[in-house]
Amino acid sequence: MLRPQDTRTRERKSLNGLWSFRTDPASAGRTERWFADRLRDSVEMAVPASYNDLLADESVTRYSGDVWYQRTVRVPRGWDGQRIVLHFESATHRATVWVGETEVVSHEGGYTPFEADVTGLVRPGDEVRISACVDNRLSFRTIPPGVVEDTATGPKQRYWHDFFNYAGLHRTVWLSATPTTYVDDVTVVTGLDGATGTVGYTVAAVGADGLTVHTELTDAEGRPAGSADGAEGTIVVEDVHPWAPGDGYLYDLEIQLVDSSGAVVDSYHQPVGVRTVEVRGTEFLINGEPFAFTGFGMHEDHAGIGKGHNDALLVQDFGLLRWIGANSLRTSHYPYSEEVLDHADRHGIVVIDETAAVGLNMGLGGGIFGSQGYETYSADTINDATREVHAQAIRELVARDKNHPSVVLWSIANEPESDTEGAEKYFEPLFRVVKEADPTRPAGFVNVMLAPHGKCRVSQFADVLMLNRYYGWYVHTGDLEAAELAWDAELAAWSGEGKPIIVTEYGADTVPGMHSIGSEPWTEEYQVAYLDMNHRVFDRHDAVVGEHVWNFADFATTAGIMRVGGNKKGAFTRDRRPKNAAFALRRRWRSDS
Ligand code: BDP
Predict the structure, then answer these.
(1) Which stretches of the chain score pLDDT less than 50?
(2) What is the pLDDT of residue 518?
(3) What is the C-alpha to C-alpha distance for residues 372 and 393, in angstroms, rounded to an integer?
């Protein structure tokens, strides 16, 4: 599946804006065929956005179940004879879509795209009604998992991840047109040998018998940089300008389907960054050079729109990343919108790309340790069927993001239970899935504090060790001396594994404006002292090649006695004002500060 584009043979029309919306707590809409007519008793809802916080209605904020979105669209009259596709960049966490009265597609998983060929159901020039039933419920067969419990006050959604279960149509919906003979997919793999770069590609096309695949590479200044023929090929680029951290140099690869008269039947443009990624011993190499990650685990989270994508806020967040000297980010804890990855490509920000497999750990809930009343891996909870859903989530992530040069490492899960036999059995096949899907990038998962060195049974499968640790926060709270000792000892043990270590989370909740001259948790001073302690420890271990503070900004969570208006571990507040820690990080990460 390729993302809709405007090219010389393709067109797209955004369906963003106001849609009709209504909740469907009884899940009556399917049997009552709400798609068959104008959505009654509806209100207006913005797309893209999470619906939760927009209606000043508590029952919608905390809603669990089906909701319906509907709008009409006039199909451009020039699209006669074209293949017409309805494309959703995401629907959280699952959706079924109708065009008119015909069901066209269902999709599981809230953060990856899906589409349907609707050519036979629409007439260029005419209006058509699009309805989507979107369900935000999480179960033991979803990624992320959750459970809807029957309680005395009705069914309640419970989950084990520490961010609010925002839902809805978070990203752009497109109607698009391609020729009926079309480029269906492209995979690009790049190489570097001194000043020479290679751009290897594989193209899949539909209905292209008798056509030739022709590719044209152009540099960022618009100068021709090479070309090739065939569905598979390699373009050699002399004096290549590599993509590198801080230097988001992109070539454009135009993929053409050409007929015997030389006419271009279809054209698709793939941005290409020529770079290599490799793990060697404890080093993480980009273009053969050791790379040290600085930056954050982030969230797609803003007041009002929740997890909805917004270009202005994207530009603001990346501006702050640049200001603070971050060279990288992790898409904690789900695939981010494709605009984020495009932006990272163009600006040379390195990305650890994560699936939505978060909360596969019944010993943890919303950052709170302790038994949560379930066994993590069992026939009734996370089981083989869950693993199939997880495997599909990995495949869809790789399929979507494989061509982004910014993506250098796959994270297949965040903080799963990883110290049990069940965990080992669950994860071993998933590492095979990610390696099969992408043999070119390293892969790992993010290890939780409850599975320290010597106990974790899943790290053996990972190329890179990613550790989340809260010494001085959840343990040794307020005692940074003891925290330093314990953290140092654990890192020394992990260093012996001979793999690169990225500390993917370390952080302390901080109430902006709260101060103290002592080391009092929750104050701005404590956050700075906590980060300083961590940095002293990292600097003593050569195998530590990355530090990602938790979190870039404060974010919304589910209600909990450890959360005051959400998680407050941000270097920035939720509205992106810097805490003292932001200035401290800037001093460490920017040589010019
Ligand atoms: C880790 C999780 C992250 C939480 C964080 C915290 O990976 O999602 O928000 O801790 O407790 O357990 O702040």
Answers:
(1) none
(2) 83
(3) 25
